[in-house]
Design brief:
Distance between the termini: 151 Å
Length: 932
């Protein structure tokens, strides 16, 4: 078979292809039958014919561009041409004896099986149908099948062809999707979409066409497109449609007036394109949108522009039109305002319309450009501007810039109003208001002014602070809402005198005990006066209320009274303590003398005297507490065991209390150089505060430990680096509110009605004078914790006790002069010192000291600081130093409220003896000073 024949076979359509295959098969069958029946030369010719037919069939099947296959009664492939192999992905050898249904996609397999079995049964199912194949590579292909049952060599087979229609199916699917998208678009778009044929009749109309025309789709499909147009637009539309169908390029859109079914007329904007139809039938696809609102708006705009032009030309306010290039038009009022000859003069000289600098110092050109930019961004802007006219004058104008459309662009419509006079009045009023506000701010009293209706007009800062209302919040509110007044005794609302003052035109004052409740809940006791405000014609136009907070003043008066009482008690306590210390000095001295004279066998007596001495020392401690209460001077520091001070002070303060005490004091707690009496007072006050915080009982925890404060920790504690004793006093009481913690150390601050407000302030003062610090932490309802840091010596308390309690060395002979107004003190000191080998002379006042020292100098003089009715130690020392500049003098006192005691060296003394003292204290002092 030649090449032309093969090419023609590849180009045959499917029906001719299948028929040709069947014919070739039939011819082969006939030749086979003849061959079986004949013999000889005829058989030879038949064989040749059969071979030729088979060759024709083979060439045809091998070259045709379609899959050709045969299946037997078991549905197995007995023949497959090369195209079948390419289509399936299997080789021809792999296809032979393969069940045909293995190639069929599972979705179509059941249908293929049913039709194949039916065809073998002799039924006539559809010969031509589409299915999907699942080829060897897993790809899915769409094919069009043609199958027919035949007899082949005495066996029934099915001869089939398969043509790959995958590409066609995809094209059909894409076309269907596009059609569905087009229909979905046209049915949902809010634009009328339609088509009409070459005769002008509608062939399609979407849903919106019904709404826009008033006709149903069925009605429209039988109508000419001009039937929905107003008569004066029909000819134009027909002519444009003919030109568009002829292929001439026209503008995209044009406007017409449509007529709805009910006769309503609407403006439509039409557009259309030419489409090719079947049999050279040219179709036009058109769309229409309702532009009635736009047309009416444009007409209204045109009318508005005409009205604007009339207003523009006749307005008394200057108006200008401004674009990015500058002014391009102005009205006659602008010409008059700027004293120009005509509009052209205004437009030609924009730079001359403003001074070089505006009052704020900015260049006029630079500021104007910024304002114009801001106006374009915001759409509107209003501001004040200093202008110049063309005659050289200046005036203030209130300027508004409005962005408006103008001839297919946006411009700024500018309106001026001369406010020069207004600015002068405003400046005058501002000065007056500023003077008034400065005056109000400077007044120490609260001031509120109101109008006739009692609404707040002005408030100064003091009024804001007392009422809790800012002026901006209170302005316009009634005074009764701002000023809540009650009677301090009864709690009943108090009358505001302002209304009566305005009504009666007289000055009135508040009743006594008036309390102001602020917005925040604070209470202030106030005194005030209310007066009417009159204008220049003496007409009442409002009222003014002037008031002040007298709470602090009254509290201070109460505190002063308390302090006077405390001072009186303190003086009494100090006097009693001083006299008592003198007595204790005599008692303790005599006990020690008696103990010295007892023999070793008087053990029982010595024990009794020791007990008496111990009791005397406790009495001295009690006296020291009285002195601490009475004094307020600098601490008199001595090395002391802090643990003993804490224990004794805490136990003393809790005597008779139901509060439990828990002590956790470090065994190696450092000693410190302190005023033992003052530190005792610190501990006592902290414990007493804790007791008051636990009215229902509880436990007070006191801990003490050694700490080293590093340099990095000093800023937070306001301490110097070094060793400290850290004392912590913690209760389980009511706690301290956070807003009060910064105030608790203030003098006179207290939350207890019976308190003096001095306890914590005294603690703070004492600790500070010891170069320590005190801190507080609290959680309301849970605990309060005070922490005290005291500078320490860095050595254990036992070493301090050892250092100062050892027996004195043998004394050197010395002459000692003792001055004290109490005879018992003079006698006991004389006896004690003489017992240790000193020569002693005693006198009762300073004059006697001077006389004795003038007669013969002494190695040491011990003088009482205070001598009632006579010359005391300080005055006497000054005169002694005139006699002997090298005199050694020791000051002695029963209380230490005088700065001489706290800093005796500054006043010329070489030591200090605190009454009552024991022989050990006296001997140690003598040794320190006589050995120098």
């Amino acid at each position: 078979m030649d090449e032309k024949t093969i090419i023609s076979l590849r180009q045959m359509d499917k029906e001719a292809l299948v028929r040709q295959i069947i014919d070739l098969h039939s011819e082969n069958e006939a030749l086979q039958a003849r061959l079986s029946a004949g013999s000889g030369a005829e058989d030879e010719a038949c064989i040749l014919a059969r071979l030729k037919s088979e060759e024709r069939f083979r060439v045809f099947a091998e070259n045709v561009q379609a899959a050709v296959y045969m299946i037997d009664g078991d549905a197995r492939i007995v023949y497959a041409n090369p195209f079948m192999a390419r289509l399936s992905g299997y080789s021809q050898a792999e296809l032979l004896r393969m069940p045909i249904f293995d190639l069929v996609h599972p979705d179509y397999r059941e249908t293929a099986i049913e039709r194949t079995l039916a065809r073998f049964r002799g039924e006539v199912p559809p010969a031509n149908y589409d299915i999907k194949l699942q080829v060897k590579a897993g790809e899915i292909k769409c094919v069009e099948l043609y199958a027919e049952k035949l007899d082949f060599q005495g066996e029934e087979i099915i001869l089939g062809t398969a043509i790959d229609i995958t590409a066609r199916k995809k094209s059909e699917e894409a076309l269907r999707e596009r059609e569905e998208m087009f229909r979905a678009f046209t049915e949902n778009v809010q634009v009328m979409v339609y088509t009409y044929n070459s005769k002008g009749f509608f062939t399609y109309a979407n849903k919106i066409c019904e709404d826009m025309t008033g006709y149903t789709r069925d009605e429209l499909l039988g109508m000419h497109f001009t039937q929905v147009l107003r008569d004066d637009y029909k000819d134009l539309s027909v002519k444009r449609a003919e030109l568009r169908r002829s292929g001439e390029h026209l503008g995209v859109v044009y406007d017409v007036v449509g007529v709805k079914k009910d006769g309503t007329q609407r403006w439509w904007e039409l557009s259309g394109i030419r489409l090719e139809g079947k049999d050279d039938d040219v179709t036009v696809l058109g769309s229409a949108i309702d532009i009635t609102a736009r047309v009416e708006s444009e007409q209204a705009l045109k009318e508005s522009e005409e009205k604007f032009r009339s207003l523009y030309e006749r307005s008394s306010d200057p108006m200008l039109l401004l674009d990015e290039k500058g002014f391009f038009d102005c009205n006659p009022a602008t010409v008059r305002q700027l004293k120009a000859k005509n509009r052209e003069a205004v437009i030609a000289h924009p730079a001359r319309l403003s001074p070089e600098l505006q009052p704020d110092g900015r260049l006029s050109q630079e500021k104007a450009e910024a304002l114009i930019k801001e106006a374009y961004a915001a759409g509107f802007l209003r501001f004040e501007w200093l202008h110049c006219d063309l005659a050289g004058g200046q005036f203030w104008a209130d300027v508004s810039l409005t962005v408006i459309p103008f001839q297919q662009r946006k411009i700024l419509f500018t309106v001026w109003r001369d406010i020069t006079l207004f600015k002068k009045l405003e400046h005058h009023l501002r000065d007056e208001r500023e003077q008034l506000l400065v005056t109000l701010r400077s007044i120490g009293d609260a001031v509120i002014t109101t109008d006739l209706a009692g609404r707040v007009v002005l408030m100064n800062r003091v009024a804001e602070k007392l009422t809790g209302w800012r002026h901006s919040e209170a302005s316009g509110r009634h005074i009764s809402e701002i000023l809540k007044l009650v009677n301090g005794k009864s709690g009943a609302p108090a009358l505001n005198p302002l209304a009566r003052a305005i009504t009666e035109g007289m000055i009135l004052e508040l009743a006594d005990n008036t309390v102001l409740h602020s917005r925040s809940g604070q209470e202030f006791k106030i005194a005030d006066s209310a007066s009417p405000i009159r204008d220049e014609k003496s007409q009442i136009i409002g009222g003014v209320l002037v008031f002040r907070d007298i709470s602090e003043r009254e509290r201070m008066q109460e505190e002063v009274l308390k302090l006077r009482k405390l001072e009186s008690v303190g003086r009494l306590a100090g006097g009693i303590a001083h006299d008592f210390n003198n007595l204790l000095t005599g008692i303790m001295g005599n006990i020690e003398v008696a103990m010295m004279r007892l023999g070793a066998e008087s053990k029982r007596s010595r024990e009794n005297l020791n007990k008496a001495l111990k009791a005397s020392r406790r009495a001295a401690d009690l006296t020291q507490k009285l002195l601490t209460f009475a004094k307020g001077g600098e601490p008199v520091k001595e090395a002391a065991a802090i643990a003993e001070i804490i224990k004794d002070s805490a136990e003393f303060s809790l005597t008779g209390s139901k509060i439990a005490l828990s002590l956790a004091l470090a065994a190696d707690l450092w000693a410190a150089e302190v005023d033992a009496g003052q530190i005792s007072q610190v501990i006592q006050n902290l414990v007493i505060n804790a007791v008051h915080a636990m009215p229902d009982g509880g436990t007070i925890l006191i801990t003490a430990e050694n700490v080293e404060i590093a340099l990095s920790q000093t800023s937070g504690l306001s301490l110097k680096p070094g060793p400290y004793v850290k004392i912590l006093v913690r209760d389980q009481g009511l706690g301290i509110a956070e807003d009060l913690r910064d105030k608790i150390f203030d003098p006179f601050f207290t939350t207890k009605s019976e308190g003096s407000g001095l306890g914590l302030s005294v603690i703070h003062s004492i600790v500070n004078k010891h170069q320590g610090c005190v801190r507080v932490a609290s959680e309301p309802g849970v605990f309060t914790e005070f922490t005290v840091f005291l500078p320490a010596l860095g050595i254990a308390s036992e070493k301090i006790v050892q250092k100062f309690s050892r027996e004195p060395d043998a004394v050197k002979p010395a002459r000692i002069l003792v001055m004290d107004d109490e005879e018992i003190v003079r006698e006991i000191i004389s006896e004690l010192l003489q017992a240790y080998g000193y020569e002693v002379v005693t006198v009762s006042d300073g004059q006697q000291v001077l006389a004795a020292y003038s007669a013969q100098p002494f190695d040491l003089v011990i003088m009482d600081l205070t001598v009632p009715g006579g010359m005391g130690g300080l005055e006497t020392l000054a005169l002694l130093q005139e006699i002997d500049p090298k005199v050694k003098a020791v000051v002695s006192s029963g209380y230490a409220n005088d700065p001489v005691v706290a800093d005796y060296g500054r006043y010329g003394f070489c030591g200090f003896l605190h009454k009552p003292y024991i022989i050990e204290d006296l001997l140690q002092l003598l040794k320190r000073n006589l050995d120098k």
